[in-house]
Design brief:
8-stranded mixed sheet; 10 strands; Spore Coat Polysaccharide Biosynthesis Protein SpsA, Chain A; alpha/beta; 16% strand; 2 domains
Length: 281
């Protein structure tokens, strides 16, 4: 197995409860780069002492998905990289099945696992001779990258903090004639929205709502222009205002905060401000 041709990049933030089970699902002969979005030296030392194939970089700040993964990818020396979320789990033959595509000289920029969310395990895939499905994009929790194909295109747009950065990357790749596939033989389970510790769930929920709205407008503006993007997000803007007022009236503090975050994320994006919001602890 050509494990020396692959490096795994995992971007973490307060992921102590998740990361160990993820690493345990990876063969110890594969190099793993972890980008920890904090100054948690204890986390770094625990990982590097326990796993000899792990190198952990501390960013001393929360860089987010795009910038954090770009940092990890800048450290990769192999031709192939696998970007993983901390709340993923590789099935036994996932890496082996990826390298079958390499051995068969498949022309690809990205390959994603066929199971794109844990709930999809309920769906039964139709088996045929070809496990590959060419697609326009894959989800960002697990992406095998053929790094030489990114040389002129670059990786993630660092204006995104979280959300839609992988869709943006896929659109740029497709525009440049690159190919993206799902492989039904590669199975990687993803819990979804749970890569952090449970104790910070609400603050992370506030952050997700803010950034989802910010990224939605920025993405639309990038590909459709400002006016069309504004027209398309107006219903979301009005909905967030109405729901904020509704939950304020009934003194539901948690819901009120969530819809304020949605409104704030959109307004900041519409006004051209950077994706500045960070979870508060």
């Amino acid at each position: 197995m050509s494990y020396n041709k692959l490096t795994i990049v995992i971007n973490t933030f307060k992921s102590d409860e998740k990361i160990f089970s993820c690493i345990e699902s990876i063969d110890q002969n594969i190099k793993i780069i972890i980008v920890e979005n904090s100054d948690n030296s204890e986390f770094k030392n625990n990982l590097e002492n326990k796993y000899k194939n792990v190198t952990c970089y501390l960013t001393n700040e929360n860089l987010g998905y795009a910038k954090g993964n770009n940092l990890g990818l800048s450290k990769v020396k192999t031709n192939y990289a696998l970007i993983l979320n901390p709340d993923t789990f590789l099935k036994e033959d996932a890496i082996e099945n990826f390298f079958k595509n390499v051995k068969n000289s498949l022309d690809f920029a990205i390959i994603g696992p066929a199971i794109q969310e844990k709930k999809d395990r309920l769906n039964q895939f139709i088996k045929d001779e070809n496990n590959l499905i060419e697609v326009d994009y894959v989800k960002g929790f697990a992406m095998f990258l053929n790094l030489p194909q990114f040389e002129r295109i670059g990786f993630f747009d660092e204006n995104f903090f979280i959300y839609l950065e992988e869709i943006d990357l896929c659109k740029r790749l497709k525009k440049n004639g690159k190919r993206i596939f799902l492989d039904r033989s590669i199975i990687i389970d993803h819990l979804g929205a749970s890569s952090h510790n449970k104790s910070i769930d609400f603050q992370m929920n506030l952050s997700r709502n803010w950034h989802w709205m910010w990224s939605t407008f920025y993405f639309k503006k990038k590909y459709k222009g400002y006016l069309i993007a504004l027209f398309e997000v107006l219903p979301k803007l009005l909905s967030s205002v109405v729901k904020f007022l509704f939950f304020s009236l009934f003194n539901n503090k948690e819901k009120r905060k969530i819809y304020y975050q949605r409104f704030s994320g959109l307004i900041n994006s519409i006004s051209g401000k950077q994706s500045w919001y960070r979870p508060k602890f």
